[in-house]
Amino acid sequence: MIKPVSVMPESTQEYKFDKVMVIDDSDSDLYVAEHYLKKYFVAANVISVESATEGLNYLIQNANLVEQLPSIIFLDIRMPVMDGFEFLNKYEKLPSSVLEHCTVIMLSSSADPRDRERIKNNSLVKKFINKPLNQEKLQELLLSNIITTKV
User: N or C: which end of the chain has fewer CB within 10 A?
Assistant: First the structure.
């Protein structure tokens, strides 16, 4: 189920990004990510989805509505039905409007060196962050300048 999360204040001028998406099958990991993204004014709206399929469906439905697309997609690796790498295989076939607007960040607890190598070799993934998301990791991400789409 897609859970859009709007936050206060009403103006998005204080936020770094209008929308970000978190794709993770773990309710607790979704909660932690949403908490930090709101607490540190990273995103005015957090689109939380519990599966890669839901995330793809959202992106497909909004491909022609750039203002509805997330600037960042935080993507878990290990998920049932479709994992993060399968998501990326389908994601790369989406319209250029999506690919040009969204920046994919892998957010995972995977310690498998093969996963790290696959991430490193995938041009769609701009960064890997170990779970859980926290203030320090968000600051590092924002300072890295790998994300160019803003509010």
Answer: N
Cross-strand pairs, 138: none
The pLDDT tens digits for 36-95 are 999 888 999 999 999 999 999 999 999 999 999 999 999 999 999 999 999 999 999 999
CATH superfamily of 3-143: Response regulator (3.40.50.2300)
Partner residues linked to 75 by β-bridges? 23, 106
| Three-class secondary structure of residue 95 per DSSP | coil
Query: How many residues in total does the chain contain?
Result: 151
Mean pLDDT of the chain: 88
Question: Smallest Cα–Cα separation from 138: which of 109, 111, 114, 107?
Answer: 107
Q: Which class for 2: exposed (0-12), middle (13-18), buried (19 or more C-beta within 10 A)?
A: middle
Cα 115 from Cα 109, distance rounded (Å): 11
